[in-house]
Amino acid sequence: MRLREFLLNTSLMFFALIAAKAQPLVKDGVPGEAGNESTTVGESAGPALPAAPSTLIAQDKVLASAYYDTVGILSTHNACSDFFGRPDASVGVFNQLVSSVRMGSFPPSTGLRMSGETTNVLNAKTMKQYRIFEKVLLNTNGPFYRKQFSVTNPQVHRIGSFDADTKEVRVLIFLHELGHLIRGDDGKWLLPDDGRSDEISRKNSQNIEEVCSEQIHNLSKQQARNTRQDRDQPGEKTAPLTSAIVKP
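Below the sequence we write its predicted structure tokens.
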């Protein structure tokens, strides 16, 4: 009996090893490098939502909400995700951006700051070029987290048409920075560098807001939908849900 159990367990381990070797490690579509696993999906379905790329997401509800809101936009086919090179290219780059995020503290006019040396990457699967900055700091004093900074500086300025400390502005901040990372078909970065020019930074945010306006504005509508569904618990007698959403 013990011999038969030993042989059975040995066989199971053998087949498990074969299955593991059959799955190559893939990083941004390039076999042979350690990274997130990827799966092939049909074009109509779009890529599956990735696992959270940073432990900070599990610790910070605000960051988690912004991350999944942004991934939700990039992972479906729409004007916004097309601008960033379609879902199969943009989600992977965004995941790498978020995996590099650390918390920082600097003047409240900035939401997120990327600096240091850059690493240029070519995704062999999508043939998209992008870069990753050495340092990515999310400002805990800025519009991502705060509406008010201090008594002497009471209001954190909005970005684009969105107030500070809102779902919309957080996604706009992430998409703005993503635009600095991805190279367009014309060989230029989707957004020009703006670290030394507030004017160029404002224009970049305006450009992203124009391209992604529908998807960003839908965030509040989706939140209202979810609130309605949470309120209407199963088993309660409620009116049927409709597609009509009251604008905030």
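Residues 1-47, 235-248 have pLDDT under 50 and may be disordered.
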